[in-house]
């Protein structure tokens, strides 16, 4: 490849990657702030239900991604790659900015979660059209035999977008007081995205159409009905289904387990301080991200199939021991408490003339340096302890741990291992999908299995797994924290078997 062609493709990658990274940033700001959002847009009287509702709203954005893939994929195959994913960028940016402007549940009641849900659906539709366009655009500029390497740069954007979302949240928290962040500062990361989107739009505006698509269009070889040709043609539909059940389904659950589920697990199951989790996760992502490029490049040499399948197999085998190690690392029942330094401070909060909250704040210190703050709130009405719908005393307990440097390092390593699994399955997959389908229906054909695999199977993971964990905890299971892993392990195992049997190495050169 000459220097000229290298320079040209770097320009293409820079423009495509920046826009896609910003869309992922927009999409994941919501997930990164799920814990605080649950207190703003949902009823506060049941924190667990509010958090599950937030995760369900987060998942809704994933569920509609396949519809975005169909709508924008069709446009991309009819009018071109460039203009289609410029529209998705603006749609995503506008929806994200508006989420940061919605009044809280206390102000507008049920209109708050309804508006958040509608904007999440718009985000999902936009992202459904973005990824396929960016991956196709870069692949159609890449030299023969190097699609894995060049498209792997697009694969880094999802993780980089998550990393930047964590960093923006951390900076905002450090600049503002805890009270200010909780009151209005959490909105800042949503507002910041509009500036990033405008910069990316200006850059993308000057891009040229994909040469492969432009050639097909000039020769009259574009599809008149991309949806019919993609899914009405039995031969092509076979590849769509193989892409979904043999690759993207497993890739989706591995991706979300290694990044989002790990984050939710540390914050809600291990109860680690949110800033500590964001920091250690950010570092693990930063160290792991170059491996997207490594495995994308390697897939050009040895084929896509075995790298992706190896990543899934490692995840299937490794998840339970990894998460058990994560949990025991910060389990205070295995640490020694310095009883002389334990303090409990009672306080009272008057809600109205009939309702009061008794609050007991207990601070504990352990010999290794771990500190724990436990806030227990008892709700009273007319002097009588309130009960929930099951007749149990209405007592809420919120625990926050500040863990030691050595524990943070251990967790960072365990998350890094999961990121490696992610890079193995995700690094080569853009090239794998592009090569399965012909130019005239590529945008549509590759977008749907990608977004069903990631949007449906992957996007539902946080809500389903959290539900499994909560149910097991209520049932008194000693290892309740591992129950959420059965979902990704099961999906990845099915995908691994189908992929190993039916994916043929010839797919690598099918439409190069």
UniProtKB/TrEMBL annotation:
<keyword id="KW-0472">Membrane</keyword>
<feature type="transmembrane region" description="Helical">
    <location>
        <begin position="485"/>
        <end position="503"/>
    </location>
</feature>
<feature type="transmembrane region" description="Helical">
    <location>
        <begin position="21"/>
        <end position="42"/>
    </location>
</feature>
<dbReference type="InterPro" id="IPR005829">
    <property type="entry name" value="Sugar_transporter_CS"/>
</dbReference>
<feature type="transmembrane region" description="Helical">
    <location>
        <begin position="150"/>
        <end position="172"/>
    </location>
</feature>
<keyword id="KW-1003">Cell membrane</keyword>
<feature type="transmembrane region" description="Helical">
    <location>
        <begin position="446"/>
        <end position="465"/>
    </location>
</feature>
<feature type="transmembrane region" description="Helical">
    <location>
        <begin position="117"/>
        <end position="138"/>
    </location>
</feature>
<keyword id="KW-0812">Transmembrane</keyword>
<feature type="transmembrane region" description="Helical">
    <location>
        <begin position="239"/>
        <end position="259"/>
    </location>
</feature>
<protein>
    <submittedName>
        <fullName>MFS transporter</fullName>
    </submittedName>
</protein>
<dbReference type="GO" id="GO:0005886">
    <property type="term" value="C:plasma membrane"/>
</dbReference>
<keyword id="KW-0813">Transport</keyword>
<feature type="transmembrane region" description="Helical">
    <location>
        <begin position="83"/>
        <end position="105"/>
    </location>
</feature>
<dbReference type="Pfam" id="PF00083">
    <property type="entry name" value="Sugar_tr"/>
</dbReference>
<feature type="domain" description="Major facilitator superfamily (MFS) profile">
    <location>
        <begin position="12"/>
        <end position="507"/>
    </location>
</feature>
<dbReference type="InterPro" id="IPR020846">
    <property type="entry name" value="MFS_dom"/>
</dbReference>
<feature type="transmembrane region" description="Helical">
    <location>
        <begin position="279"/>
        <end position="299"/>
    </location>
</feature>
<feature type="transmembrane region" description="Helical">
    <location>
        <begin position="306"/>
        <end position="323"/>
    </location>
</feature>
<dbReference type="GO" id="GO:0022857">
    <property type="term" value="F:transmembrane transporter activity"/>
</dbReference>
<dbReference type="InterPro" id="IPR005828">
    <property type="entry name" value="MFS_sugar_transport-like"/>
</dbReference>
<keyword id="KW-1133">Transmembrane helix</keyword>
<feature type="transmembrane region" description="Helical">
    <location>
        <begin position="48"/>
        <end position="71"/>
    </location>
</feature>
<dbReference type="InterPro" id="IPR036259">
    <property type="entry name" value="MFS_trans_sf"/>
</dbReference>
<feature type="transmembrane region" description="Helical">
    <location>
        <begin position="410"/>
        <end position="434"/>
    </location>
</feature>
<feature type="transmembrane region" description="Helical">
    <location>
        <begin position="184"/>
        <end position="203"/>
    </location>
</feature>
């Amino acid at each position: 490849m000459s220097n000229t062609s290298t320079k040209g493709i770097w320009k293409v990658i820079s423009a495509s990657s920046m826009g896609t990274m910003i869309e992922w940033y927009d999409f994941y700001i919501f997930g990164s702030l799920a814990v605080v959002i649950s207190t703003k847009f949902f009823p506060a009287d049941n924190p667990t239900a509010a958090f599950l509702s937030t995760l369900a709203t987060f998942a809704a954005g994933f569920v509609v991604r396949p519809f975005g893939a169909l709508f924008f994929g069709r446009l991309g195959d009819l009018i071109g790659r460039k203009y289609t994913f410029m529209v998705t960028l603006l749609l995503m940016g506008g929806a994200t900015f508006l989420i940061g402007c919605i009044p809280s549940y206390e102000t507008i009641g049920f209109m708050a979660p309804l508006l958040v849900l509608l904007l999440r659906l718009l985000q999902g539709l936009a992202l459904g059209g973005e990824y396929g366009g960016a991956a196709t655009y870069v692949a159609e500029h890449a030299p023969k035999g190097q699609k894995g390497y060049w498209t792997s740069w697009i694969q880094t954007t999802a993780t980089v977008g998550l990393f930047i979302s964590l960093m923006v949240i951390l900076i905002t928290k450090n600049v503002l007081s805890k009270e200010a962040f909780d009151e209005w500062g959490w909105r800042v990361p949503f507002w910041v995205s509009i500036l990033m989107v405008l910069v990316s739009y200006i850059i993308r505006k000057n891009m040229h159409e994909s040469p492969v698509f432009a050639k097909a269009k000039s020769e009259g070889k574009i599809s008149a009905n991309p949806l019919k040709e993609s899914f009405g043609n039995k031969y092509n539909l076979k590849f769509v289904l193989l892409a979904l059940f043999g690759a993207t389904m497993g890739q989706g659950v591995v991706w979300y387990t290694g990044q989002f589920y790990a984050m939710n697990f540390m914050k809600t199951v291990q109860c680690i301080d949110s800033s500590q989790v964001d920091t250690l996760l950010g570092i693990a992502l930063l160290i792991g991200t170059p491996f997207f490029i490594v495995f994308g490049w390697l897939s050009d040499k040895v084929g896509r199939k075995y790298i992706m399948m190896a990543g899934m197999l490692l995840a299937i085998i490794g998840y339970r021991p990894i998460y058990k190690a994560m949990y025991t690392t910060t389990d205070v029942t295995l640490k020694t408490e310095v009883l002389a330094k334990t303090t409990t401070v009672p306080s009272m909060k008057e809600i109205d003339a009939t309702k009061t909250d008794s609050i007991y704040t207990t601070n504990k210190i352990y010999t290794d340096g771990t500190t724990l703050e436990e806030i227990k709130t008892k709700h009273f009405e007319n002097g009588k302890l309130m009960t929930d719908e099951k007749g149990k005393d209405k007592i809420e307990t919120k625990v926050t741990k500040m863990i030691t440097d050595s524990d943070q390092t251990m967790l960072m390593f365990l998350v890094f291992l999961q990121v490696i699994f992610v890079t193995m399955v995700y690094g080569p997959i853009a090239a794998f999908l592009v090569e399965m389908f012909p130019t005239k229906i590529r945008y549509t054909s590759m977008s749907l299995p990608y977004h069903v695999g990631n949007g449906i199977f992957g996007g539902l993971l946080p809500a389903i797994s959290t539900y499994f964990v909560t149910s097991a905890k209520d049932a008194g299971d000693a290892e309740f924290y591992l129950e959420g892993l059965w979902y990704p392990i099961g999906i990845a195992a099915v995908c691994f078997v189908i992929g190993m049997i039916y994916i043929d190495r010839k797919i690598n050169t099918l439409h190069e």
